[in-house]
UniProtKB/TrEMBL annotation, chains A, B:
It holds the Pfam family Hepar_II_III_C. Residues 87-284 form the Alginate lyase domain. It is found in: Periplasm. Residues 1-18 form the signal peptide. It comes from the Bacteria. InterPro entries: Alginate_lyase_dom, Chondroitin_lyas, Hepar_II_III_C. The keyword Signal applies. One of its GO terms (molecular function) is lyase activity. This is Alginate lyase family protein. Its main location: periplasm.
Length: 731, 731
């Protein structure tokens, strides 16, 4: 009986694993790329770059040092350079047939086969998932992915004995480490686990090891509660929204796509790219929708602003998507800006499409869009209201998603505003200098959790100087706001409304933002209702993380000119210098700033209990880890309180001609006509006309008819809101 | 006798003034432009833009309001728009022959002819040279220049009676105001006077008024002590360095060129463009040499950083220079970036050259260069040390010029560093939001004199927290530093040394900076000797206005994390928050920062009496008029003191690949081998080699032979300095 089993397994192995290369590209793909290389163009240029980066190492003795340094240090960077070199050289071998490239890879593999069995936890390991070659296991997983792909490409060049030596020496210690020592980490639903599964799975395919592949796909228990497929099912919402946010979908999409591509070559019947109605395609497309005009990923949750869609991960994903989902011309503006393609069938096809296409748009086709969060799509979401095309695009992001795992922030009902490619109301992102050893080994800085993740670092209300969920991840991870209503189908009135009654014990947060395109304005107007409901007295701070230069204010303030202290002592407040403060009056309060060449005015409904602050980051930051960014904070006190704010984009400043146009706000007054359990109705005088914005607070059904007295006259509308401008319903 | 004189004058008038147009372009020029417009290209595109801007006003009643508002306000912007429109419409008339354009100009002129005689000083006038149409006379001069050119273009369209009406009503009140009421201002040697003379002179040519032209050329006393020619002679050094600095040469070059061009058409025998060996050509070319890679004018003296050579003034000057000095292909990169040309013969020729030229360089051909200051070239100067080509350009500016009139700063022996188009050690420039009414009417802000002009805002030594010349312009205007020696002919060793014994009563400032290209480095190394000589005890602060993110320091510092106070109380110190301070030790002191994607390290020779500060702008700035820029200040105390600093450009940070290369300084030690009346010799250990930099403090003759013991061995050299690297003289 046992003998039969072994025979069956052997048969299984040979039938499934006979062909190499198969992980990154197939023999047929190699042919397509070789044909593509006969043409001048982006494929050939990309090939030349890779070849040049590899050729300078041919014949040299390449260092495989004993791991010692943190990120940014020598041994870290050397091992990172090695796996990229091994991958690239293995591709050169496939595309040129020249064995010098395979020899380079083999020699490095033999060094790793000697080194890896000797390794214990990295001396710089500080995380709960320590690495061996690197300070954290995540980097070891990166190593496995690339060296696995490299092994597959030189598989047929190696003798069976060499293959065995490398599989046992270079790969097995890492795979065992992941699947035994770090089993809990390997079995997470999290981007780290995606990398780990991709690494183990690709090595499985490359070394014809079905057990590795099984663990990678189905988790170490082989029960599909964890593993790669469970991560595809668990990390994305049905729309492809990745719960950690756009910066991390950029990162995670690479192992998702690389491993899925290998699987698709090797087990096409698994239809991994079709899983959950093409969720991996949606992940890419919707990741791109979450970028700014310059390609930078929106910086909510932990994010570094300098990352854009020209990064390697998106180059790879785009090429693979082109191959498996078919040509998609909307991706060409992205590919053009990337200005390189991968050396694969998809890359060859993208390069050809770029060469054949005339008039490629300057920008990705951004549109108003909403995503649900959560594997089932029932954990809140993110909406992006948008108007204007090309460089005139204005995007207002409203975030009512779930926490977003370990990289989430305490930012329920946050808004972020981009205009014409500039950040106007920013999300700080994360505090980290990735790859810079001197800055805390390139790791997330303490200020990232202590400031950047805190509520005050966002554009949403902080109650009693305490972050949402008191800054507790385990608590925040359990809940999410609920969307009340939205409309992005009407270009003139886009709206999104959501409520959260869990972020604070006894306070309910209810926010609605409208992006209104008034007929006599060139840019959209943002109207922002923020209701706070509580039976107890609280302090409510609504910060606006504006970026720009203070131009003027409608109020007098006290500036702290000779000495400065902090805005508070905790929840991120300790990082904010109080530059100025003011007491508002029973009147319209306005603040105008200049960003790049456009004016922005925040007009606020205030009363004489409202306080205002100008703050500046940098307090309690002895290591200069935070940018010195400003904020404008509106503080109200009370039990129930309502903020009504209008954000206006207006005018222009031409520095070369020294001309300023429409530098003054056109908002003349804001009054609240009604604010009770049933309705919130505000009236805004703008440009000598009246704008009335009304919402139903309770009954948000789409078909409910409402009749409400507004300014003494019965107004009628259907659905959760209405917007009336100059006595006409705006639509 | 009297009758003969009158006859002679009449003859003079008719012979000189018969032809119109002649001021901006001649009839022959019009023919060239018309021919140029038959081709597609930049001329035609520029024509289309101008035509479009004019056409929308044809047939409309254009407002000529009663002057009321400051810069940025409605009446200011309307009058500004009017003179540009009149000029452009008059060109359209010449180029199309369509009288609707001339009619538009005439109608506006008739409104001004009614308005101008009624005007008294502008209600917002605050300066000693008040305007009438505008808040300051300078803007009235701009108005005269453009409307004078416009009048000339429609001269032949107007009836003699209309000409008289406009000359008497629109022009005469302004000309009389300038030459009688503001005579002292009109007769200055200053950019305002250049504009005023250009305005009166162009109106003289346009209205056939020889007296106007005479006053413009020779001053109201007609004695050539003032007037346009005296300004050409007085404001430029023989090399064409403009004493107010690059930002203002950009501004002044327009009236210089426009009036000179009109004169050249009307009195070619005056050879105004050849005056002082083509000093106006040198002014343009050397103005361009004083720009950054992005075209931005260097920001020393009062300057707004956003001004670049794409501004209208340089577009006009470039076109005229091309016509009068001949084709110059080195100007094409500038013209290409300007992306428009003037509607003139020069503009047509530049457009044609752009169309015919292949491979126009991406950047202006920057080179190491020195300028003298002062009309006779004997009032110090500015040197720019440079290495690297194209985007690798590094420029180190050393300023030892005279004060620079009313826009000068207290910045003797200041240095400024640009690298790869980025400002690394900045000059703040001026504090002003030109054209923004809310920001102090668009005028220079008080912080401009109080902070930006003060010594602490620069990269040079402040003694006892008091600016050079105690911040007194009249005093500073009298003196200038003396250059001791320089060399920019040796690419590996560029050097400039100067001394100043007037900025402080009893302290002599002596600074030498070297830009060294070491054989094993890709970027130049700056070595900076700053000697302070005094018989009394003083405090010496050397600030580095670095731009970038703090990466690390070699020293421990105390950060003021919970409360902040200012660095001092006066001389600009009151605007600086003290973010951190440290006591140095008897050792090398290093500070590394990251700017864009490059690391920079300042390595300093310090002892245990040296103090260090990190500062941040923003204190005592209640109106948010200053940028929140950082500085690093090295403080020494004593009678004689010497600063030796090394500024290193090293490594790179690749945010997309998250890789940091050479992020650490290679400087290991700095010692002073000798520091006395005769010599200053420093030894820098770098990259495990020795760099010895030696200067003669007293005998700086080029042919003097020196023999000095260095590290126990006699070193021999000729001239004021030597640089020895790895035991070889660097050359």
């Amino acid at each position: 009986m046992k003998r039969y089993t072994i025979l069956a397994l052997v048969f299984f192995y040979t039938s499934l694993f006979a062909q190499h290369p198969i992980a990154y590209l197939t023999k047929a793909d190699v042919g397509v790329v070789k044909t593509g290389l006969t043409r001048e163009g982006l494929l050939k240029a990309s090939f030349r770059d890779v070849k040049q980066s590899v050729d300078k190492w041919i014949g040299k003795d390449i260092d495989v040092p004993i791991p010692k340094d943190p990120a940014g240090g020598y041994t870290h960077e050397q091992h990172k350079a090695n796996y990229i070199l091994m991958f690239n050289s293995s591709l050169m071998y496939q595309l040129s047939g020249d064995t010098k490239y395979a020899l380079l890879v083999k020699k490095l593999f033999l060094k790793y086969a000697a080194l890896n069995p000797t390794l214990q936890n990295h001396p710089q390991a500080t995380s709960s998932s320590p690495g061996r070659i690197f300070w954290q296991a995540l980097n070891d997983a990166n190593w496995l992915v690339y060296t696995g792909l490299a092994f597959d490409c030189i598989h047929d060049y190696l003798t069976p004995a060499e293959r065995q030596l490398i599989a046992d020496g270079a790969f097995k210690p890492e795979v065992d480490f992941f699947t035994i020592n770090l089993k809990d980490w390997f079995n997470l639903i999290h981007n780290h686990a995606v990398w780990a599964c991709a690494g183990v799975g690709i090595v499985g395919i490359a070394t014809d090891n079905a057990h590795y592949l099984d663990m990678a796909l189905h988790g170490t228990a082989l029960d599909d509660k964890t593993g790669f497929l469970a991560n595809i099912d668990g990390l994305f919402s049905p729309d492809g929204y990745y719960t950690e946010g756009p910066y991390y979908v950029r990162y995670a999409i690479l192992p998702f796509y690389l491993f899925a591509n290998a699987l698709n070559n090797q087990q096409p019947t698994l239809k991994v790219f079709q899983r959950r109605n093409n969720v991996l395609q949606k992940a890419l497309v919707n990741g791109l929708q979450q970028t700014n005009l310059n390609g930078g990923f929106y910086s909510y949750n932990d994010a570094l602003k300098e990352k854009s869609f020209i990064s390697n991960e998106i180059v790879e994903a785009l090429s693979i998507a082109w191959k498996v989902y078919g040509a998609d011309s909307s991706l060409l503006p992205v590919a053009k800006q990337q200005n390189r393609v991968t050396l694969s069938k998809g890359g060859a096809d993208v390069a050809l499409a770029l060469a054949m296409s005339k008039n490629i748009a300057a920008f990705y086709p951004y549109k108003p869009i909403s995503f649900t969060d959560g594997a089932k799509g029932n954990e809140g979401g993110v909406s992006i209201l948008r108007t204007g095309g090309s460089e005139q695009l204005t995007s207002l992001i409203f975030k009512y998603s779930a926490h977003g795992l370990s990289h989430g922030h305490y930012d329920k009902l946050n808004i972020i505003l981009y205009d014409g490619g500039n950040e106007i109301l920013q999300d700080y992102g994360a505090a980290r200098f990735i790859g810079i050893e001197q800055k805390y080994g390139g790791r997330y800085l303490p200020e990232s959790k202590n400031y950047a993740a805190q509520t005050i670092a966002h554009n949403t209300v902080v109650v009693d100087e305490t972050s949402h969920y008191n800054g507790k991840e385990d608590l925040s991870q359990k809940y999410h706001p609920e969307k009340l209503f939205s409309n992005s189908s009407n270009g003139k009135v886009q709206v999104i409304s959501a409520i959260d009654d869990k972020a604070y014990g006894d306070v309910t947060l209810h926010r609605t933002v409208w992006m209104l395109q008034l007929p006599d304005a060139s840019k959209p107007l943002t109207v922002d209702f923020f209701r706070l409901l509580s039976s107890k007295q609280h302090q409510y701070d609504l910060p606006f993380q504006y970026l720009g230069t203070v131009i003027n204010t409608s109020f007098k303030y006290q500036a702290f000119t000779n000495s400065q202290t902090t805005l508070g002592a905790k929840s991120g407040y300790q990082f904010l210098w109080k530059e100025a403060s003011a007491k508002a009056s029973n009147a319209l309060t306005q603040f105008t700033f200049l960003n790049n060449k456009t004016y922005y005015t925040i007009s606020s409904y205030t009363d004489d209990s409202t306080n205002l602050f100008f703050t500046r980051l940098g307090a309690n930051d002895p290591n200069f880890n935070l940018r010195r960014d400003p904020a404008y904070v509106i503080r109200k006190k009370g039990a129930n309180q309502t903020f009504v704010n209008v954000v206006e984009i207006h005018g222009s400043y031409d520095t070369n001609n020294e001309v300023s146009v429409n530098a003054y706000s056109k908002v003349e007054n804001i009054t609240i006509l009604r604010d009770d359990e049933a309705y919130l109705i505000a009236q805004i005088s703008i440009n000598k006309k009246l704008l009335v914005v009304a919402q139903s607070n309770k009954n948000v059904a789409a078909n409910t008819k409402h009749t409400v007295k507004i300014n003494g006259t019965d107004a009628h509308w259907v659905g959760p809101y209405t917007v009336i401008y100059d006595h006409q319903i705006l639509q």
